[in-house]
Each structure stands twice: as C-alpha cells, then as structure tokens.
C-alpha cells in the first residue's frame, strides 16, 4: 500500500487516436516498460465497443481482475473505449485488494500505477512521482502534468 502522503504525478494525455484499443494498448505497453513490476490489472467502469468479458479470469460487480498480458491481447480487438479504469498491480493478491475499494483514490493508492481512459480521448496516468515518465512528452503533444498527494487530484 502506498501512503496517501506520497507525491504522485497526474499526467493527462490527449490521445490522437481517440482511445482505440490499439492506442490504449500502446500507451499501457510504454508505461509497463517503466513499471515492469505490474503483472495483474483491475479493470472497472469499462465502456467499450466490441466488449467480451468472458475472456477475463475474474468478474464481479466491482471489476475484473486479470493478467496484464490478457488485457493487452484483448485491447487490440476493441475498437474504441469511452471510459475505463485500469489499476495495475504487482500480483493477483494485490489486485484482489484493489477490487474491494469503492473510490478511485483508494484504488490508485494501492496500485503500482493507474490509467483512466475518459471521453473517448483522454488518458489519465497516475504514478508515484519518482517513476520515469519522460517518454510521454516525447511521444504525445498536449500533455498536462502535475504533482501532489492523491487527495489533491480531481479524478475523472
């Protein structure tokens, strides 16, 4: 569990591909290169075109817990994402804890990093501020960036 007083980075990226499954796949893959300890993910609030929940290993009313590799394979089959929360975790036990929380701030604080896809076009990335994120500015234009404690952010 991350301390709520840890400094986090909130990076908001305008996706030029309008949140296609492939563009989300590529964004997640780049983040994973900087945070390789995440092998499980909790998916919640997902609203996407060409949805198939049956391929994921766990599903309940709070979300889906699955391996990151399974998510990456599924994303290339998804045409577009309107909204989705992805909380990336070190292992299945950590992911099982994240899925129990009701608010975004708690989920983010327990995850290694989190990505929220919003309005068919925005990626919100939440990472501990110490993580390397320089690649974002080199690969995307129109990036908003701020640092602070989780309680200072207005999650979408």
Structure description:
Strand 3 (59-60) and strand 4 (63-67) form a beta hairpin. This protein has 156 residues and is an alpha+beta fold. It is globular. Helix 1 (21-34) packs antiparallel against helix 2. The chain has one domain (8-152). The chain has an eight-stranded antiparallel beta sheet with strand order 3-4-2-5-6-7-1-8. The chain contains five helices and eight strands.
Per-chain topology:
Blueprint (H helix, E strand, L loop, with lengths): L7 E7 L6 H14 L5 E10 L9 E2 L2 E5 H8 L4 E10 L2 H7 L5 H7 L2 E6 L3 E7 L5 H6 L4 E5 L8
Antiparallel strand pairs: 1-7, 1-8, 2-4, 2-5, 3-4, 5-6, 6-7
Helix pairs in contact: 1-2
Number of strands: 8
Structural shape: globular
Helix percent band: 25-40%
The total count of helices amounts to 5
Please tell me how large the radius of gyration is: 14 Å
- Side-by-side strand order of the widest sheet: 3-4-2-5-6-7-1-8
Number of domains: 1
Counting copies of identical and different chains, the oligomeric state is: single chain
The poorly predicted ranges are 54-59
What percentage of amino acids are in beta strands?
Answer: 25-35%
Structural class category: alpha+beta
Give the biggest sheet. Answer: 8 strands, antiparallel
- SSE ordering: EHEEEHEHHEEHE
Give the terminus-to-terminus CA distance: 22 Å
Mean pLDDT: 85
